[in-house]
């Protein structure tokens, strides 16, 4: 009985985890784009220049993907931009 409860709990956790992972990625919309752009604009100094340049490239690709209605690609590039800003 205890083994079945533990197995059911483990299965439940495995099924819930992907739902939380989807929430972590930003949506491909103008509000999310503006948030990332604001964060990039706040990056100043020579030390942050490489991260900012990489984030800007990813955001350009995200904007192109958004115009082409490629939502998955857009979200991936936005996620990459956020990761690039956090490196360093």
Secondary structure layout plus pairing:
Elements: H1 2-24, H2 30-41, H3 49-67, H4 71-86
Structure commentary:
It is a single chain. 80% of the residues lie in helices and 0% in strands. It is mainly alpha-helical and 88 residues long. It has a domain at 26-86. Mean pLDDT is 80; it is low at 17-23.
User: What would you report as the Rg, rounded to the nearest angstrom?
Assistant: 18 Å
Q: Strand tally, please?
A: 0
Low-confidence stretches: 17-23
Structural category is mainly alpha
Strand-residue proportion:
under 5%
Major β-sheet annotation: none
State mean pLDDT (0 to 100 scale).
80
SSE succession: HHHH
Helical percentage:
over 70%
Overview features:
single chain; 88 residues; mainly alpha; 4 helices; extended
């Amino acid at each position: 009985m205890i083994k079945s409860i533990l197995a059911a709990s483990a299965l439940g956790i495995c099924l819930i985890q992907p739902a939380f992972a989807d929430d972590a990625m930003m949506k491909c919309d103008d509000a999310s784009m503006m948030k990332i752009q604001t964060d990039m604009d706040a990056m100043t100094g020579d030390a942050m220049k490489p991260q900012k340049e990489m984030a800007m490239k990813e955001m350009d690709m995200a904007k192109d993907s958004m115009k082409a209605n490629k939502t998955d690609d857009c979200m991936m590039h936005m996620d990459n931009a956020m990761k690039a800003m956090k490196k360093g």
